[in-house]
Structures are given as structure tokens and as C-alpha cells.
Give the backbone structure.
Amino acid sequence: MARTAGAEQIQIESGPLIRAIQFEHNAHGSSQWLLNDSQRTKLAQLATRVTFPARSIAYREDTPLEWIFILGEGVVKAFRELPSGKRRVTAFLFPGDVFGLAENGRYVNTVQTVTNATLYKIATEPLTELLRHDPDLQFQFLCKVTHALRQGQRHAIVLARRDAAGRLAMLLSMLEENEVAGSRTGWIQLPMSRTDLAEYLGLSLESVSRATNALTRRGIVTFHGGHAARVIDRAAFDKLVTAL
Amino acid sequence: MARTAGAEQIQIESGPLIRAIQFEHNAHGSSQWLLNDSQRTKLAQLATRVTFPARSIAYREDTPLEWIFILGEGVVKAFRELPSGKRRVTAFLFPGDVFGLAENGRYVNTVQTVTNATLYKIATEPLTELLRHDPDLQFQFLCKVTHALRQGQRHAIVLARRDAAGRLAMLLSMLEENEVAGSRTGWIQLPMSRTDLAEYLGLSLESVSRATNALTRRGIVTFHGGHAARVIDRAAFDKLVTAL
DNA sequence: CGTCATTTTGAGGTATTTCAACGAAGGTGG
DNA sequence: CCACCTTCGTTGAAATACCTCAAAATGACG
């Protein structure tokens, strides 16, 4: 993939953005995209913009902390390898998400791109240094991580459900919320594979298949090409999502 | 309960502490108790120390953000009320844990004390103000929330397990790690009720009962009085915990 | 157009849930 | 001090939903 001048021009962004929600109440709508120009510039100066093809590993769990990442474009997944060899996807990450915040100098999850992705990587040292000198910027990170914590809790609620169709519906609902930022096509993009879904939902691959089937059969959702879904019966969908 | 001078003297602490783990590698052992004296003092100046009897509600989900809390002593649980009326415990919180970080000005969980508890409450405004002026202190919060995020991910892994005994064993293992700070009695304290355990593990109350039974019958763990447990067969226990 | 990977479908096994009833524990009032 | 009541925890049996194993079908890609 040769990098053409034209391709560069398409790049409207001038640096990393972070997406989250503030602690305190913001005026209606409350732009969920954090970072002002100054902060973006400072981050951009530290960051290296890298592009990965789908299925690339950004880093592996238990390896030494090196970079902290901000996702620019594309979708990635964070997962853990279990002793049995099975995988548990702990989160799907979207543009504006931060990852690579390690613990005791080691990454906790493995992160792999789901689609082609561009991400900003920043060496740990300079970033923590910057955060210590720019409290407002750091506060954006604090909001971001807190938001990620909420997402994790929602994930836990999904996993505690007993019915596969309900779990899938909740995931679709969460993905749909992400969509809102973009064009309102009514379609929910599903860039990840069925296996990825299964590992996120804590189901077997077959159960995911049967769940999509059930949703289709009941006329609630349609799937197209395996990587897009659309809610047909909104009432039934919402009922299923909140039926827990 | 009259407050005697003697009782006050028992209070060794001079203010709130936070417990977490740093991003980067620390020298061995790395005291997981954050905050230096200066930071504690500043927090203490903003904080109000309050004591609650067991089963008190600190705040309810969806109510307006008011205080942010740091747990001093005791155990509390955070949970969400589901449409069906069921509850999902999202976390058990221990001394040094922070809670009340809301989203868009509203609390996300309900928090209720499990035991008698003393906690430090800090008005949101002054705290965020302090954080914006003390980046190092804020960094401790950032580490703390990140650590909470990891806990949440472990919780998700627990929930994705299929066997009740294994889930319970993982929870016991996590509680045991918390214990280490205190006296090495070999006992794992279980201040929460069976119902609390069930709501955390995503199991029915009956299944928790059967799971404790299974662990006892298999000679892996013994339970005493319902609020304490001890690992008898460490090898089998570890095997069960990591058998996923 | 053939090959490999992914997804779907089928049938039986297993673990948890649910419903119901019993037992234990703690607190209250007579 | 004891009876009563309410909450919590335990035990049993049937039903449900997912998992596993196996094989066919679909789709992607060179």
C-alpha cells in the first residue's frame, strides 16, 4: 500500500483525539470528544502515527510496557489468553479509545487489530511526564479510564445474562451507540468475526450463530454479509435488551 | 454508641489513603498504598469522615453526583438494579478504594455498606479543583481507576466461567489477595452475605450454596460461620482457580 | 475455479435455574 | 425466658439453555 499524497490529504485529523464522558454534567449533548487544540498538539508531538493491517498484534499480555496507544481509526480488540488456550475478549476498542495502560510495568491484555487501523503510540515516560505537567490533559485521561471502567461493568452485566440472544442484543445495542457519531445509516457495523463475538460474549461460536439465527427468525434483527446488522423490530429489540 | 476519647485514640490514620498499583514497574514489593503525607493532608482538609452502620446506602444510581468517596474501613458493595428487579453486584470495595466517580453528573451504581464502615466523602467541585492543581495527586487517582478497570476485567472473566465452584474459587482467590495486607491468619474473610456473593458471581443463591458445598465436600475449602473460609488443599484450589 | 477458513446446522450431554419446602439464626414482644 | 416472626441459607427434583462433538454449507481469495 504505497502512501500517496492524496491519501495523506484525506487525513483530516491533526492528531489523536480521546472520547469519553465527563464526571459532571455538561450542557445537553456534551460533546464526548475530549481534548482541545493545544492538548492535541502536545500529544501529537509525542505520538508516532502507525498503521496496522487487520489481525496485527499491537502488544502481548505480560510483555514489558513500552507504548501507550490512542486509537485513531479502525477497530481493535483486547483479550486475555487463558491457561486452557481459550480467549476472553475484554473489550472492543474504537477511535478515541486509549489502551496500553499497564500495571507494574507489564501489559495486562493482548491487543490485536480487528480491521486495518491507524493508531498513535506514545512512549510511556514522556506521556506520564506530560500528564504530570498538564493536569487538564490528565483529567481527560482520568475521565476516559473511568468511562472504560463503566464499559467494563456493562460487559460484566452482559456476561451475567443466561440467554445467548439477549447477550448478543446487548452487544449490538452497545455497538449501535458507538455508531451514532457517524452517519445515521441505521446499520450496525460488525467488523469483528463471529469468533470474536463469541469470545466477548462468553459463548461458544455455535451459540453465537444460533443467537443471530434466533434474532433473525424472530424478525428482530437482520444480518448482512456477517459484518452488518440492522434492527427491524425496535420495540422487540429494546425489550430483549432490557429484559434482564 | 457514645464516642469516647479512647475510641478516638484508636484512630491511627490521619486521613484517607488510596490503594492501587502503578503503571510502571516499581522496585520489588512496590508499596501499593499511594499518597504521601502532603497529599493525604490536602485530601483530609477537603474530606469529611463519616461512619455508617452495615447495610447503609451511600448513594443510589442515577441520582445527581454530590460526593466522591474514599473507603477508610469496612467493606462496601457497588451494584446496579436491573429492570427485572434483580441486582448485579459490580464490585466489592475495600479500604483504600475510591468510588462515586459519576458519569454526566449522575452516579452509575448504588453503593451500600456491607459491614460497618468509615468513609471519607469529598465534594466533587473542590476535589476536581484539587486534582487540577496537583497533578501528582491526580496521577494516583488515575492509577487507582486503571486498577479498578483491571478488577472489572477479572470480574468479567469470572462471570464467563461456566462452573459455579470455579467462579466461587476465583472470588475467594481475589478476596485472599486483599487479605494479604493484614495479618496472615490463613483465613479469608467473607463479610458479605450469600446473596451478595450470588449477585457478584452471576449465580442463583442456591447455586452459591451448592458451590460452597462442593468445595467443602471435595476437601478444598472449609467455611466457618458463613463469613470466613480457609483453603485446605492449596494445590487443588489453585488448579480450580486457573482451570478455565 | 479450487482450496482454506469461517459459519451454520444437528444431536446428545451437562450444568445451572427455577420452584418448592425445609432448617437455622436473629430480633421482638409478651 | 420463651414463643413468634422474619430473614437467610440449605436441600431436592424437574426444566431449560448452553456446550461439545461432528459434519455440511457458505464464503473469501488466489
Remarks:
- The longest strand of chain B covers residues 67-73.
